[in-house]
Amino acid sequence: MHDRPALALAAIVGAFSLSTQDVVLLTVRQQDRYSSPADVPSSSVSADGRFVAFASFARLVPADTNTHRDIYVLDRSTGSVSIESLGDGADAADQDSMWPRIADDGRRLVYETLQAQADGRVIRVIALRDRRLATTRIVQRGSEPPNGSSREPAISGDGRIVVFSSCATNLADGFDANGHGEDVYAFDVAANRFERTSVRVDGLQPATGASFAASVSRDGRYVAFTSTSDLEPPFEAPRRAMPTRNTVYVRDRDAHVTTRVSVGRDGAAANGTSFGGAISGDGAYVAFVSDASNLVAHDANGLEDVFLYDMRSRRTVLLSRGLSGGSANGRSRNPAIDAHGVHVAFQSEASNLTCADRCPGGSRDINLLSDVFLYNRAAGAVRRLSTGRHAWLDPSGGAAINGTGDVVAFSSRHPIDADDTNNDFDLFIWISEAVEHPGQPLR
Hints:
Blueprint: E1 6-8, H1 9-12, E2 13-17, E3 23-32, E4 43-45, E5 51-56, E6 70-75, E7 80-83, E8 97-102, E9 108-116, E10 122-130, E11 135-138, E12 150-155, E13 161-166, E14 183-188, E15 193-196, E16 211-216, E17 222-227, E18 247-252, E19 257-260, E20 274-279, E21 285-290, E22 305-310, E23 315-318, E24 332-337, E25 343-348, E26 371-376, E27 381-384, E28 396-401, E29 407-412, E30 425-432
Antiparallel strand pairs: 1-7, 2-3, 3-30, 4-5, 5-6, 6-7, 8-9, 9-10, 10-11, 12-13, 13-14, 14-15, 16-17, 17-18, 18-19, 20-21, 21-22, 22-23, 24-25, 25-26, 26-27, 28-29, 29-30
């Protein structure tokens, strides 16, 4: 059991108000010089917005004595930051850790980390952190280390189910039909049991292709993922080359049903690549990215766009649409969705999502780089979050969102303050004051 070193919030976090006066931005140094605007989120927000987990190269607590990327958690209510990627002692782990995802109540946390194997190989493994008990375990089958790398973990809101993709062949029972091809697994924390979820509609594992980029509903029942395998009939015969077109699916683990999400208007296959599915906490909506032109009418930009799929009505809506109703004039990706699919945060290089020619002062998107936007399904409107009294001239991306859509974390090269002259990405936390609620203590 390890103590969790903490540092006062004021020492590392800055705060300032935006020109609209209805939001606040908190900033935390990440010192990440290796990010790019295309990167996936390096942060995660608890359901009530109190806890923000993030990866950082900055040494934010005395226990962090290395130069590696570490996992931290910001508690906005108590004003403290704790390091969670610990080694055998109370110091930071001596390897890079990344991709943190936190449960609704902030107790459990999963992330990727590097681990040396007995044969000298270094592979990626999934670490599960219990912040209340201050313990960390590697997600594996009993005492048997995985024989391949795992990545991109997510955790259900209730903290019971961890999903991830892995090349390992020794996690689930039975023969691994696609060998070291990636599969998506669901790990039951209490039962210590693995279930392969990237399976066909008939429940069989495909012999070709790979599945990855998993997202999970609050109760762990629904798992969204991307696959290059044929999971719907007619199933194609095994072939040497992997198919190149990615498709987004949802697996209902209770009903044992696999559903294709990235589907054309006429029910046919999408005519482009789809990926990056993010499922709402209630499992009713999936936001995803696609460059297909046949998912909705009048999608004519030929670029990656962000879509929202309603699992009940089987209807797809284009979110990254120009303010005039036409196509976005830039690529959009990396959606993050709230508990009920009302708000979707995403990043986009488009400049016509919120304003076209006649724009109020400071609101025109002139940086020609990736910005972070928030879509409100109830209002049918999009707003830009990565901006202030003056337009930001730096890229922003990798949004994460809380359960009600009023707290959004993202990374940006925009300077934190006048003394920030580093060419790096730092963490920004957008908070809507109208619905601000820092949450309850960790239970």
